[in-house]
Write a structure and sequence with these properties.
FAD/NAD(P)-binding domain; two-stranded antiparallel ribbon; 4 helices; 24% helix; SQRD; FAD/NAD-bd_sf
Length: 192
């Protein structure tokens, strides 16, 4: 019989105590020190912003993008990319005297490696949890949403090339900045 070791425990701020044998934990994801040093950050070193316009609360001319802001979506490269794309267009329009505002919907898109040569692909925003379906071409894919497949894994591997040769040089990607419902299936239990 294996005896349970209980000498270790995690204790929460409200004094709940959970014993464990093996603890796998993820450290608190804090923002950068320079955000704290700027005086713009909250207690997690993120700049509080309007979640759609990315404008820092209380300031007309300060915007925070990517890992620096506190919007309720993933801290991910795809989020930083989409925010930057929308922000750059709006900034260019304003500099040319045209009215424009950033309208970020929380769009995030991530491959998630699952092991065994398979990966998931998730595509979601503030209002829509990851759904099953095909991506980026509705019905065709070639990637599958929310399902571990080998093709998704190879898509993740191929993304390395896309990163260096398309994203870094700033070439536009044929993927919409705002999340699309095309190709997504809403399961009945979610729809009802
Ligand atoms: C280990 C790891 C794995 C990840 N894997 C993934 C993944 O698979 N997919 C995904 O989508 N995302 C992933 N992410 C998250 C992704 O890397 C970040 O969300 C993304 O890089 C944020 O972009 P950013 O431009 O906001 O910040 P950053 O990429 O952090 O850029 C900030 C830049 O500011 C510079 N800087 C800092 N201080 C100063 C200063 N005082 N003056 C001037 N410059 C300064 C830094 O050097 C840095 O270049 C991962 C992150 C980590 C740490």
């Amino acid at each position: 019989m294996v005896e349970r070791v209980t000498e270790y425990a995690v204790v929460s701020y409200d004094d709940r105590r959970i014993g464990y044998d093996l603890l796998v934990t993820v450290p608190l994801n804090m923002g950068a020190d320079y955000v704290a040093a700027s005086g713009l950050g909250d207690e997690l070193n993120h700049v509080p912003v309007d979640r759609n316009t990315l404008r820092a609360n209380g300031y007309d001319n300060i915007f925070a993008l990517g890992d620096a802001n506190d919007v309720p979506t993933s801290k991910a490269g795809s989020v930083a990319h989409v925010e930057a794309e929308l922000f750059a267009d709006a900034l260019a329009a304003r500099l040319h005297g045209r009215p424009a505002r950033v309208d970020f919907d929380g769009h995030a898109n991530c491959f998630v490696e699952c092991g065994d040569g398979r990966a998931l692909l998730i595509d979601f925003n503030y209002d829509t949890e990851p759904l099953p379906g095909r991506y980026p071409l509705p019905g065709l894919g070639p990637f599958s949403l929310l399902r571990p497949t080998r093709l998704n894994h190879w898509g993740k591997r191929a993304f390395r090339w896309v990163y260096w040769h398309a994203l870094l040089p700033g070439r536009p990607l044929p993927v919409p900045a705002r999340m699309s419902m095309a190709g997504k299936h809403v399961p009945e239990e979610v729809a009802s």
